[in-house]
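Submission sheet (multi-component)
Chains listed below:
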Amino acid sequence: MGIAARLEKIRKELPSGVELILVSKTKSPEEILEAYDAGQRIFGESKVQELLPKTEKLPKDIQWHMVGHLQSNKVKYIVPFISLIHSVDSAKLLKVINKEGRKNNRTIPCLLQMHIADESSKFGMDHDELCQLLDSDTFKEMHHVEIRGLMGMATFTSDTEKVKAEFRQLRTSFDYIKQNQFSDQTSFREISMGMSDDYNIAIGQGSTMVRIGSAIFGER
Ligand SMILES: *Cc1c(COP(=O)(O)O)cnc(C)c1O
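Outcome: structure written.
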């Protein structure tokens, strides 16, 4: 099966209301174009230095999402065009995104990344840190970011019950935060969870965005 066929197969599996973010890191512009020609318009990248040259070479109607850990000093390069930043993992980073958003006269759509896995190598805030950030006066003064929801990555394990419990934890935090902080705002509605090996489990727990790479593009 080629890229277009695998893309089509996974698209058919996804329930309505679940958006596919096709993660194209390490993949060439030619491979990305194959998916584009098959109708895909949302692509995810995890490194700014890889994303920038791709935006030059590829069609302008692609919506680029940042899914990987973002360093504060790189924010300025993506703020002019990025459609969604999934990986806001600290208050400091959100502050920088807001500042750059203001300079660009844009409001930047963001997801807050929550740490749900065992691995300390994965980034993100815990439930209390998320609540503190959203309760803070600094946050209330940020008018150039829009928090669209939460993102999380499960532990890399074959224990599906564990993965399921971690996604459920993300969902529970999402529901709590929605009710407490965003009850009057329809913009807070996304739960970005699920990758090639666990997207079905994530969908079962309420994912609205799956970030899939290797299951469509092949192994990296
Ligand atoms: C690479 C990556 C993905 C996609 O991973 P696959 O296992 O290839 O589907 C999803 N989310 C993030 C944050 C990634 O870095």
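Remark: The pocket of pyridoxal-5'-phosphate is lined by residues 23, 25, 46, 67-68, 153, 195-197, 211-215 (CB under 6 Å).
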